[in-house]
């Protein structure tokens, strides 16, 4: 299906089309580009104009450029603009203007990507959905997501993130949501903000892009919830709160965390609801209630939404649970991995530790007779002046009582390592690469293992090392 013609793309961006062409997608990466994509030559760590020829050789339908790279044939299909990023933004705004979709925007210090994926699943049960891939939520990720949006989808879910003040409002104005949701405001990016209130004000800037008659969906359990509601009321036609506290419009009343799922009961306004998500964690249950609030705001079928919620699972790096078989013959010799290595801040790490604390190791399986709960934790970044205290404070979390061993990665996590009682203190390493070398010796059949840290700590290396311990079952 054609996404952009050369004529439409030139009109949207004010650029000049060279040749007549059509494209079926939009890409910024030659490693994942597909035949028929428009290759966007952004300038970031490297100037992607250097890869235009490669993109076209791989089958790109055209390239969005601010200059014609040397060596291209005269008939190379291009869209020439003054500056590539503003050109991509213009393409995104034009895609938003032409779509019939009901648009939902999501932000939050914790849970925005998993909530976006819940919404993808839930809305997908009631129509066609376009949603951001991965965590494409920044100054290029949002316009890229919009530029990729077909005109005829029923719903769009746009994730919006930030690192510094002033980032969310322009992205929300570009997305123009009908519903805007805040999952949670927690200590994260404190290096760029003076206080939690500062973070809350930046998150609430998502309401600045609301369409007329738009609805705000806000976590009502937070210290800053009154401020969020106040700022939402200034922009939204209606504000719906969700959470566990009394007085929330959509309220979670009971959460049962099982080994492989979470079951919750509550009230969606005045209607009793019972629902499940196929991953353990109280925070997933609360955000799922927020998703039901979005369903209410969009006037969709709640029963269908609850059924779809039960089919949602966390993705890799965001709480995905896997069984790693350690012996190809004796397949019962296994451990369980909780891969939450994509990001970390105090709130999300506390939630993940709660999940680990509720997991059930298996005894009598390996060298160590007693199955253990083990955590590999990497530095939480961008926490400002409180970073050392916030890391050390993790030792006092109630969930830590049920965790047997904590291995720590990075200079900041050394504060936690030193604060732990000796019987829980595992290894400390400066880097994830150094820690990954020890994994095979530290783990055993029956263990449940959590891996979590900020993305820059590269704890995916520890995850990879655990995967390499695995074997496929033997076949006869």
Describe this structure in words.
GO terms for molecular function: ATP binding; UDP-N-acetylmuramoyl-tripeptide-D-alanyl-D-alanine ligase activity; UDP-N-acetylmuramoylalanyl-D-glutamyl-2,6-diaminopimelate-D-alanyl-D-alanine ligase activity. With 476 residues, the protein is an alpha/beta fold. It has three domains: 4-82, Udp-n-acetylmuramoylalanyl-d-glutamate--2,6- Diaminopimelate Ligase, Chain: A, domain 1 (3-Layer(aba) Sandwich), CATH 3.40.1390.10; 99-309, Mur-like, catalytic domain (UDP-N-acetylmuramoyl-L-alanine:D-glutamate ligase), CATH 3.40.1190; 320-467, Mur ligase, C-terminal domain (Protein-Tyrosine Phosphatase, Chain A, Alpha-Beta Complex), CATH 3.90.190. Helices cover 30% and strands 22% of the residues. It is built from 16 helices and 22 strands. Strand 19, helix 12 (387-393) and strand 20 form a beta-alpha-beta unit. Helix 4 packs across helix 9 (282-297) and helix 9 (282-297) packs antiparallel against helix 10 (302-309).
Tags for this model:
476 residues, alpha/beta, Udp-n-acetylmuramoylalanyl-d-glutamate--2,6- Diaminopimelate Ligase, Chain: A, domain 1, UDP-N-acetylmuramoyl-L-alanine:D-glutamate ligase, Protein-Tyrosine Phosphatase, Chain A, 3 domains, 9-stranded mixed sheet, 6-stranded mixed sheet, 22 strands
């Amino acid at each position: 299906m054609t996404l952009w013609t050369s004529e439409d793309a030139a009109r949207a961006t004010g650029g000049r089309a060279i040749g007549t062409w059509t494209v079926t997608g939009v890409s910024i990466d030659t490693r994942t580009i597909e035949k028929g994509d428009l290759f966007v030559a952004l300038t970031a760590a490297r100037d992607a104009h250097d890869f235009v020829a490669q993109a076209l050789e791989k089958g790109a339908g055209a390239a969005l450029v601010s200059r014609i790279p040397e060596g291209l044939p005269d008939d190379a299909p291009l869209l020439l603009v003054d500056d590539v990023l503003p050109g991509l933004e213009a393409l995104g705004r034009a895609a938003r203007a032409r779509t019939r979709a009901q648009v939902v925007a999501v932000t939050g210090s914790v849970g925005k990507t998993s909530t976006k994926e819940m919404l993808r699943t839930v809305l997908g049960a009631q129509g066609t959905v376009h949603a951001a891939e991965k965590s494409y939520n920044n100054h290029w990720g949002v316009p890229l997501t919009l530029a990729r949006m077909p005109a005829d989808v029923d719903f769009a879910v746009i994730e919006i993130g930030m690192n510094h003040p002033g980032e969310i409002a322009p992205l929300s104005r570009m997305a123009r949501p009908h519903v805007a949701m805040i999952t949670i405001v927690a200590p994260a990016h404190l290096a760029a903000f003076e206080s939690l209130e500062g973070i809350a004000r930046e998150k609430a800037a998502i309401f600045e892009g609301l369409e007329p008659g738009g609805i705000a969906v806000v976590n009502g359990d937070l210290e800053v919830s009154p401020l969020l509601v106040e700022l939402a009321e200034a922009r939204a036609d209606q504000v719906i709160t969700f959470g566990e506290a009394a007085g929330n419009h959509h309220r979670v009343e009971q959460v049962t965390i099982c080994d492989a799922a979470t079951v919750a009961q509550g009230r969606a306004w005045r209607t009793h609801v019972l629902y499940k998500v196929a991953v353990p964690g109280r925070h997933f249950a609360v955000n799922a209630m927020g998703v039901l609030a979005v369903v209410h705001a969009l006037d969709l079928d709640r029963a269908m939404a609850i059924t779809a919620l039960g089919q949602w699972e966390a993705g890799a790096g965001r709480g995905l649970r896997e069984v790693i078989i350690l012996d190809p013959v004796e397949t019962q010799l296994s451990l369980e991995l909780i891969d939450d290595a994509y990001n970390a801040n105090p709130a999300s790490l506390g939630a993940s530790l709660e999940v680990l604390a509720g997991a059930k190791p298996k005894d009598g399986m390996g060298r160590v007779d007693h199955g253990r709960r083990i955590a590999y934790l990497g530095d939480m970044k961008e926490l400002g002046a409180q970073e050392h205290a916030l890391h050390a404070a993790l030792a006092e979390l109630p969930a830590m009582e049920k965790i047997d061993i904590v291995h720590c990665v990075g200079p900041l996590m050394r504060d936690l390592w030193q604060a732990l009682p000796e019987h829980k203190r595992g290894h400390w390493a400066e880097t994830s690469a150094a820690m990954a070398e020890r994994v095979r010796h530290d783990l055993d059949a029956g263990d449940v293992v959590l891996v979590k840290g900020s993305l820059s700590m590269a704890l995916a290396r520890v995850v990879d090392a655990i995967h390499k311990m695995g074997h496929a079952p033997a076949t006869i």
